[in-house]
Design goal:
By secondary structure, the chain is of the alpha+beta class. It is built from three helices and two strands. Strands 1-2 form a two-stranded antiparallel ribbon.
């Protein structure tokens, strides 16, 4: 069985092979509620990947909390935003 890390690496390799310009404009469908229609927003492929990375850290943080509540200690830095880790390196230095 493949690990989550292996799957993530496969996904990253697949993304690198896509013939897409990161600055390509894309139209994003936003479904923010159940009582009105979808909204459309303009973005770029690169911006959507940035959002995905940021949102993934958010989910990692939730996984980290749930793991700790069960006595499972995740790797140091897991679920902490890269900018926070960078800051902590400067103050703990």
């Amino acid at each position: 069985m493949d690990s989550g890390i292996g799957k993530a690496k496969d996904l990253l390799n697949g993304l690198r092979k896509l013939p897409i310009d990161e600055e390509s404009r894309v139209e994003v469908i936003v479904s923010a509620n159940t009582y009105s229609g979808d909204d459309l927003s303009q973005s770029t492929f690169a911006r959507e990947l940035q959002f995905l990375a940021s949102h993934t850290v958010h989910h990692y943080a939730l996984i980290s909390i749930a793991s700790r509540m069960q006595g499972i200690m995740p790797a140091e830095g897991f679920g902490i935003a890269p900018s926070t880790l960078k800051y902590l390196q400067t103050v703990e230095g």
